[in-house]
Write a structure and sequence with these properties.
The structure holds 2 protein chains of 2 kinds. By secondary structure, chain A is mainly alpha-helical. Chain A has 5 helices and 2 strands; from the N terminus they run αααββαα. By secondary structure, chain B is α+β, with helices and mostly antiparallel strands. Classes of the chains: A mainly alpha, B alpha+beta. Chains A and B meet through strand 1 and strand 2 of A and helix 1, strand 2, strand 3, helix 2 and strand 14 of B.
Chain lengths: ~140, ~240
């Protein structure tokens, strides 16, 4: 019963009870199996074989390589059941981007920042960091 | 021969680029690539493609379907054998579909599936030594989009074409979806099932799909406009 420290085990006193006989046998068999496994093939399986595939994962299907939409579609009310599913999926896909909508676009921000820096930076000493309009000097 | 991403590759070619990346990080080798002792070897003729981060595959022209796990396919029920249906999916042997793998099916309540029915199913087991196995439910026991496809029209095409029209970038479905009502199921085994209100509309959808095999984005858009105007009766 030793050698498997991580697994939660029943105490020995409980396992010795009469009604736990079957469980005790099962646990003993399990431990025997797992221990035998390594020793049985130890001389055949080399370390090289274990790490032969390295960082490479083989994938026989295109679905994990190319971007693809679901292959079952319905348009203009031909099959309302499928269209409901399509709507649900679209709503799910759009949600995260909806939350992250920008109030100020990148270009506007870049232009404002440029103007701001031009105005503020020259007389700033590097010791002070300006945040917004607050300037300590 | 040494090849790089984006080039035309042939079986036996080697790609050093992938092996170098593989030394540092995890790499996914898609169809057409194999890890050998001395590097990455190409096993199919096509173009070598990459998708970041670190997914490589060979995009080849192919009509023969090779089952692989997780793909949605269209099959025809060819035999009822006790507990299972035999389904022809176009692979080297027929796939099996248990009658219990339908939504709400029990031993007493069998699903109504007959020989000759067309089913849209997911590959559950696909191994090179065993018969593939299909299911018509997801892991929650819901049917979702899978199941028997009633009526409609099935046609075969190359495996590339199915991937092309299912690509989110492809304008075909976006151009057609506002024109007339239709339904479509595309199996990655190179079979497409379509259904529309009239025969003319069904043929129009089928022709639009088959027509876009060798067209680029702009050509597909103009073809769709063309088909839509013919169907609407503006041009005869």
């Amino acid at each position: 019963m030793t050698g498997l420290p991580k697994k939660v085990q029943l105490p020995k006193s409980v396992l010795d009870m009469k009604f736990m006989k079957k469980t005790k046998e099962r646990i003993e068999k399990e431990i025997e199996n797992t221990q035998d496994h390594d020793s049985l093939y130890a001389n055949i399986i080399t370390h090289e074989m274990r790490s032969a595939s390295g960082n490479f994962i083989s994938e026989p299907s295109f679905i994990f390589c190319e971007p693809m939409i679901e292959g079952r579609l319905s348009f203009k009310g031909m099959n309302p059941e499928i269209e409901r599913l399509m709507e649900l999926e679209n709503a799910k896909n759009e949600k995260p981007s909806g939350e992250m909508d920008k109030d100020v676009s990148d270009e506007v921000l870049a232009r404002k920042m440029e103007a701001f820096n031009k105005r503020k930076r020259p007389q700033d000493s590097p010791k002070y960091v300006t945040i917004g309009n607050k300037r300590k000097k | 021969m040494k090849v790089a991403v984006g080039e035309v590759v042939l079986p036996g070619d080697q790609c050093e680029e992938i092996s170098l990346v593989g030394e540092k990080s995890k790499v996914i080798l898609g169809p057409g690539l194999r890890k050998e002792v001395d590097g990455i070897t190409i096993t199919k003729a096509g173009t070598l493609k990459k998708r970041s981060p670190n997914t490589y595959w060979v995009d080849n022209y192919q009509k023969r379907y090779i089952p692989s796990r997780g793909e949605n396919v269209i099959g025809v029920v060819v035999q009822k054998a006790g507990d299972i249906f035999r389904v022809d999916v176009g692979g080297s042997c027929s796939a099996s579909l248990s009658y219990l793998s339908f939504e709400g099916a029990t031993k007493k309540n069998r699903p109504k599936v007959n020989i000759g029915d067309v089913v849209y199913a997911k590959m559950l087991v696909a191994s090179k030594d065993m018969e593939p196995e299909l299911v018509c439910v997801d892991s929650h026991g819901k049917k979702g989009r899978l199941g028997v496809l009633e009526e409609g029209f099935v046609f075969k095409c190359s495996l590339n074409l199915v991937r092309k029209i299912l690509n989110p970038e492809c304008p075909l479905l976006n151009s057609l979806k506002n024109e007339w009502p239709f339904e479509l199921a595309a199996g990655l085994n190179g079979r497409i099932w379509i259904k529309a209100k009239t025969m003319r509309e069904t043929i129009a959808v089928g022709n639009a799909i088959l027509g876009c095999e060798y067209l680029n984005t702009d050509e597909i858009k103009s073809m769709c406009t063309n088909i839509a105007s013919i169907l609407a009766g503006h041009v005869s």
